[in-house]
């Protein structure tokens, strides 16, 4: 049936709800009764309007967008994962797709939630369930959700689908961490997206899609508004069509061209991963005269290395800059489209899979290490006194600056002034943070960045430049390491595959007997390579064995059992939100394509102004130490920035992100899925009273300090909410992980003397060598035993500086004569066995 339904069909009644759980962007909400089925929906309505920028968190869409829901009558008390839904999608230019993200009680981010995509084709509405575990294109979903179409209508510019969705608020993709929305909580978040660019093959429900360009966002659904007494009758309505595009759909695969590995070439050191750990390692090892190959999975990022990512409007065209290079564009990674081809697609957390790794996509905050971070967290040989030289070398090569604009001025300091006034009133001291790295108790500072010459700088602009000047240094981009090829405990090389066009494929070897492999692929990347190389807990190695890796995985006789993936940590983030009339939001989102002309001109001509600073007006940074009842002192760091969060809109708002760092004792775990993707399966936060006490007490202190500022309003927590209640009620769930993490993940291959093969917690020894191997090392965030005071990248570079010294000081392996000992639990010597003796060792 085709009727003209869609432009005036939805009547938004006057029932509006004031509850805002998280993000709530809808032009209006109301009720609509579908005349054909008689089903009454509670509808979220995005009105007809022009999309600006990339349409993120839009309340309008070209042609409009509507999504309605009806829930079982008892949904407010009995959890249901089923609902009856209605999508009214737009095809304003005759084509496109629309989608729903089935959110959770805490959020509806694209990753980790079931998506329903739909579009008209040949008089039918085609539907497809998808999901995405990363900031990447969604792939077909094979969980238990099913959809039954109850009614469809299509005209030239719009279409309507009424459907019954079962198990749609239960995320149970096989091999992934499951989660669900609970209707009895009273409210949840849903997401939407729409595109007027057609899917690649509109006749195929599992067709690849092009990213949404006609609006996207999130809105709150109040359960009490959507429950319907007649739901059970409607749920029995006869299907007009049953979806066919779920379980059988295959993920689209793209073929990349690869280069063959030159025969006969070996390297003294192969470093895997060109990030904060890998780049300085490759530099130091090549400086010592060894032949070094640095293998990086992703493409170039900074223009200096051939990167090409620039705003579509062209304002960086013709410059030696990509967005990665411009400090003010650092938040691009979080914007719609910004993570494509940049963020790692094989982990559920944000990580940079480009040259530079995290140091290419981060905000560049750069800290002279607090000596306590080494003393409290690290073992002997890695204490503050041992690390002093390494830290000093890092700060000398990359001094950083807290005045990044080249005219020496600080821009947009209203937020800094407001917060620092309150802290000053309460007796906190103003410091230059990197001059006094140990002063992290009741101090505040302007933010230091690794930026230099008004550009990102960091390891890519220093260590990589010196490495690249040596003939014994080689770098392969676009090449992903699948696994370490090993002969018992001795790594002979690496199996690699092209990740993008031009990457290498095959096996690349280290120098026979004396060659070494350094894994610096990051907290998730290194753990993944170890798992795929048969090194880790047995349950994880078994998952790999059941995956597509199974037939070629190293035999289980040679597995090395170590607690890889455990000890996972990240700064727990707890956002506080304030508002003050003097604070002004700068439109960083618009800056991507339509920057303020004066600001972009000043930046391009002289590297001055807001674009020389990180978005969104970060500062002040402030710190407090809390001595908790369990006797442990815990470190808190606050990053203040000018933007809203926790449902508070940007404008005059500031978010103060509290990070719980050094001293926190909760730990989590990362595991691997059958799709060989990494997931945070145990959250590392607030598992004990001490950790919670530190978070709560420090919030109380900050609220009290800032309440001394005239005209300042605390929005989150509101004035009638205690810090303890605020923390207790802020969801600490997998679904809300995006709000609680800080992207400082570390710890999955811990350094220590308690050998993990015999029940200890350590994966690498004090020389960063993986237990049970003689030439396989880990040097990146993975080896950190615990969180530092601050953002970690400068400390990771210091760890690389120190590790390089320790590794270079080790004597070279020698081949063990035939029948000589070359393995065993207590064996620390060479594992290069000669002859045919290849027995596994326990
Ligand atoms: C959005 C964001 C903002 C941040 N902000 C800050 C900040 O302001 N200040 C700060 O100090 N820290 C910040 N951090 C954290 C910091 O950047 C990371 O802790 C740090 O980069 C981790 O260093 P790493 O060497 O362990 O790994 P990474 O820097 O992530 O490097 C790992 C590299 O390995 C590559 N790789 C992965 N798998 C493979 C494989 N199989 N084969 C080959 N290569 C592989 C990756 O592509 C990547 O280049 C931020 C992180 C993120 C994600």
The kinds of small molecule bound in this structure are: flavin-adenine dinucleotide
Query: Can you give the helix content as a percent range?
Result: 10-25%
Main beta-sheet annotation: 8 strands, mixed
Rounded to an integer, what's the Rg over CA atoms?
Answer: 27 Å
Question: What is the architecture of the domain at 28-242 at the second tier of CATH?
Answer: Sandwich
Low-confidence stretches: 1-22, 243-253
CATH superfamily of the domain at 28-242: Cellobiose dehydrogenase, cytochrome domain
Strand content: 15-25%
N- to C-terminal distance: 70 Å
Which structural class is indicated by helix and strand composition? alpha+beta
Q: Quote the average pLDDT.
A: 91
CATH C-level class of the domain at 28-242: Mainly Beta
- Counting DSSP H or I runs of 4 or more residues, the number of helices is 16
CATH topology annotation of the domain at 28-242? Immunoglobulin-like
Spatial shape: globular
The count of DSSP E runs of length 2 or more, i.e. the number of strands, is 35
How is the topology of this model organized?
Layout: E1 28-33, E2 40-48, E3 60-61, E4 65-70, E5 83-90, E6 97-102, E7 114-121, E8 124-131, E9 139-140, E10 146-154, E11 158-166, E12 170-171, E13 179-180, E14 187-195, E15 216-222, H1 223-226, H2 231-234, E16 241-242, E17 258-260, E18 266-267, E19 269-272, H3 278-287, E20 292-295, H4 358-361, H5 371-377, H6 384-397, H7 414-425, E21 429-430, E22 443-445, H8 463-468, E23 473-476, E24 479-487, E25 490-498, E26 503-510, E27 516-519, H9 522-532, H10 538-546, E28 572-579, H11 588-591, H12 597-606, E29 621-627, E30 633-641, E31 653-660, E32 669-672, E33 678-682, H13 689-706, E34 713-716, H14 723-729, H15 737-740, E35 776-778, H16 793-809
Parallel strand pairs: 2-3, 17-26, 18-26, 19-20, 19-27, 20-23, 21-22, 27-35
Antiparallel strand pairs: 1-2, 2-4, 4-5, 5-11, 6-7, 6-14, 7-8, 8-9, 10-11, 10-16, 12-13, 14-15, 22-29, 24-25, 25-26, 28-31, 28-34, 29-30, 30-31, 32-33
Helix pairs in contact: 3-16, 5-6, 6-16
The structure holds flavin-adenine dinucleotide.
Residues 272-278, 295-298, 333, 350-353, 357-359, 361-365, 480-481, 520-523, 525, 529, 743-744, 780-781, 791-793, 796 line the site of flavin-adenine dinucleotide.
Pfam families: CDH-cyt, GMC_oxred_C, GMC_oxred_N
Family: Belongs to the GMC oxidoreductase family.
Organism: Coleophoma cylindrospora
